[in-house]
Amino acid sequence: MAVLVTGASAGFGAAMCRRFVTAGYRVIGAARRAGKLAQLQQELGAAFYPLSMDVTDKASVDAALASLPPQWADIDLLVNNAGLALGLEAADKADYGDWETMIHTNVLGLTYLTRQILPQMVARGSGYIINMGSIAGTYPYPGGNVYGATKAFVRQFSLNLRADLAGTGIRVSNIEPGMCGGTEFSQVRFKGDEARVAALYADVAFLSGEDIANTALWLYQTPPHMNVNSIEIMPVAQSFSALPVRRQ
Ligand code: 8X3
């Protein structure tokens, strides 16, 4: 039995691979960047299996999964972690290509992996799917437009999976983090604008990839009769703000 983590080359995904291997699990790390996966394999050893795939390309997902050696083919936990935010512009100014990339990765990629791996879990009558949502899937904010909408898809898809999987013993959870740092998330969102990234995180005790990896491990180790449907996590430094009102 193995754990499969997508988006394993950096951030939450790499942190999860490290955490699960340290906890004694066998982990398949899936990502596009084979070099980063090879580094992770050097670090983690035989308990880690690097799997090159592009989650936005269904044929690549299918071929990668079909290539798994038999001893790595039974997946008990799928962590659909691959995802990204691109841009923070208002909807009338956002780059449409960015919207497409987010939808392909955060929505279609997640559904490809899920659809491919669920049948083996159903056949065994056990398994766990952890999806990476976001607080952006619940709370709207300016510039969140398509990114937040993809995470709202992930939240509802997670709940709907539970409806379909009733009686199977398979568990599904959606992790919904708020502000996290120390990952490539904001570098990617702001396309390498390091000054903007630094300004965002300045003097904030943000969540780390390790915090999210520990959460995923805790979920997986909860007793089999227990399903955490969703878990929303923010740094203490982040909270809510009043809705803006435009006065005449
Ligand atoms: C990451 C959280 O607040 O940047 O999904 O959208 S936020």
UniProtKB/TrEMBL annotation:
Domain of life according to the entry: Bacteria
InterPro entries, per database record: NAD(P)-bd_dom_sf, Sc_DH/Rdtase_CS, SDR_fam
CDD domains: SDR_c5
Pfam family, one: adh_short
GO molecular function: oxidoreductase activity, acting on the CH-OH group of donors, NAD or NADP as acceptor
Keywords: Oxidoreductase
Family (UniProt): Belongs to the short-chain dehydrogenases/reductases (SDR) family.
PANTHER family listed in its UniProt record: ALCOHOL DEHYDROGENASE (PTHR42901:SF1)
Protein name in the entry: SDR family oxidoreductase
